[in-house]
Amino acid sequence: MSVRTPLLLLPALLIAARLACAGCGGSGGSGSGAPPPDYAKALAGSPPPLAALHAQENKLLPGGTEAFENRIAALRGYPVVANFWASWCGPCRTEFPWLQKLSARYGKKVAFLGVNFEDSEDAAETFLGEEPVPYPSYSDGDRKIAESLDIHTGVPDTAYYDGSGKLLYVHLGQYRDESELEDEIRRYALDGG
Length: 193
What we know:
Elements: H1 4-20, H2 39-42, H3 48-54, E1 60-61, H4 64-74, E2 80-85, H5 90-106, E3 111-117, H6 121-130, E4 137-140, H7 144-148, E5 157-161, E6 167-172, H8 178-190
Parallel strand pairs: 1-4, 2-3, 3-4
Antiparallel strand pairs: 2-5, 5-6
């Protein structure tokens, strides 16, 4: 009987494993199936510093902490929302459709950036092809960008900077829903924290 018991449990264990990994891969992020916004239309007429971000949509940029901090400095005059994500992160995949909509809605006033955390370049680029965003992401394979912001818990996380480049707030972990993310964008990026 002891040999049969584990064999009888195998189908239940396989089902449980599939349910646990339901958000761990595949296209469409949260499974909404909705196409991303028309970024060209939504962001037409953006100020030059923000238009420069939009011209790098979906790009994975090298340079680590120095390049990331230089970009924050170059965006002086605009608040910044920096989302830390990874292709292997189920909660990140849930948040991406929200970031798509909100970056299209607020991208003429707010600079959005991504930080790809502990991910392979191929996996990150594949994911960005599935869930395109109108801004670039910086590679953070060594966690140095995250560590510079005292982010040690994993992803997703979202950092908010004011127009002078000062870090105002870091939201650790996944947002409950799109409205919670939008509320924080309004509070920390549009209302100045």
